[in-house]
Design brief:
Elements (H helix, E strand, L loop, with lengths): L2 H4 L2 E4 L25 H14 L5 E4 L8 H11 L5 E6 L6 H9 L4 E5 L5 H8 L4 H13 L5 E7 L8 H8 L5 E6 L26 H11 L10 H12 L11 H4 E4 L4 E3 L8 E2 L4 H5 L2 H12 L12 H7 L2
Parallel strand pairs: 1-2, 1-7, 2-3, 3-4, 4-5, 5-6
Antiparallel strand pairs: 7-8, 8-9
Helix pairs in contact: 2-3, 8-9
Length: 322
């Protein structure tokens, strides 16, 4: 099987720019930006369509992608001429009614929206800006418009919000076309230490107590039908909260299964590793190149705990296709 055939996840990142200041992410601290124009993105997508199966899961990520709103709509339209499952990851701040209608019209399958607590103060603290009302507004618009787009609420479990997660889930359960997923707390992405692949620096001030995580995950298991985190993945995340080093037992899937396309048009196999070529180039040759092989070896030796994330779990993507 060629390396092209092994890819099951592609991240399309139009920009690293972000208008939030989340406690668990430092992408907003990136000062230098080079975002290629949408015309190049459309060429890249046509290259992806020539090389990858329509079954590959595509996620539009950031930064906040909707900072390039008009471009993202064009990107979605082009992706949906081939790929069966296209998801937009957004904080919702720029998702007005017109944009939601346009995304719906162009076939977007799902929107991932972070919502951490029904307690306004807690949610805003974790997100770094006053955005609680924005999230509720997006959910309300989604319901009122009877949108065909699935809304996936991403819940990051921390010491600050863990007690309120069941109440948040109960709030979401009656809503139509709304599901939820659990995100594990990780090292601050894009911090200086995040690119040191031999050690990990977890945010201890946000780490929840073991007894509370055990209780929460037992409760979450009862709502598996609405949970976009697979049963196997949920078990691994629970074990990770009890002992973070347990994640090192998991084989990291990104070295052969993932492809990250950066705002510059460059590609890498993982967010925290260097680019190995251009997404406009010969993808087969790039993935078989010495650079790619060296990166796979480096990923294999990586001691980071981020293998706990979705990109290592093929079963997770199968569940997200439902």
């Amino acid at each position: 099987m060629s390396y092209l055939d092994q890819i099951f996840y592609i991240a399309v990142v139009p920009t690293w720019k972000c208008n939030f200041r989340c406690k668990a992410c430092f992408r907003w601290k990136i000062k230098k930006h080079y975002d290629i124009p949408v015309e190049k993105w459309l060429k890249i997508i046509r290259n992806l369509k020539r090389n990858f199966s329509s079954e590959v899961f595509v996620e539009i990520d950031g930064g906040e992608p909707l900072i390039r709103k008009a471009d993202v709509i064009k990107i979605v339209k082009e992706l949906k001429t081939h790929f069966k499952r296209v998801v937009l990851n957004t904080n919702g701040s720029l998702l007005d009614e017109k944009t939601l209608r346009e995304l719906d019209k162009n076939g977007l399958d799902a929107i991932k929206l972070s919502f951490y607590s029904l307690n306004k103060k807690t949610h805003n603290y974790l997100r770094g800006v006053d955005c609680y009302d924005i999230v509720l507004s997006v959910i309300k618009k989604h319901q009122q418009l009877n949108s065909k787009i699935e809304l996936i609420i991403a819940i990051l479990v921390t010491s600050k919000n863990i007690d309120g997660v069941p109440a948040l889930v109960k709030f979401l359960l009656p809503l139509k076309r709304v599901n939820f997923r659990i995100n594990p707390l990780q090292e601050n992405f894009f911090s200086k230490h995040a690119f040191n692949h031999s050690s990990v620096m977890l945010p201890k001030n946000l780490w929840p107590a073991k007894n509370k995580t055990k209780k929460l995950f037992r409760w979450l298991g009862k709502h598996q039908n609405r949970l976009k985190t697979s049963k196997e993945h949920l078990k691994v995340i629970e074990a990770y909260y009890q002992n973070p080093k347990s994640s090192l037992k998991i084989s990291c899937g990104v070295s052969t299964g993932s492809l990250i396309i950066h705002p510059s048009g460059g590609i890498s196999l993982c967010y925290s590793f260097p680019q190995i070529g251009s997404a406009l180039g010969n993808l087969k040759k790039i993935l078989e190149s010495d650079k790619a092989q060296k990166q796979r070896k480096a990923i294999g030796n990586c001691k980071k705990y981020c293998r706990i994330l979705t990109c290592s779990f093929v079963d997770q993507f199968k569940k997200n296709k439902k």
